[in-house]
Amino acid sequence: RYQEMCGKQIKETRRCRTVDYDGHARHLISSDGTIYNCHHLLYKEKHPIGHIDNGWPENILDPIVCGEYGHCNPCDFRDMEVLPADSSIYKPVSLINT
Question: Can you give the C-alpha Rg of the chain in angstroms?
Answer without folding.
Answer: 13
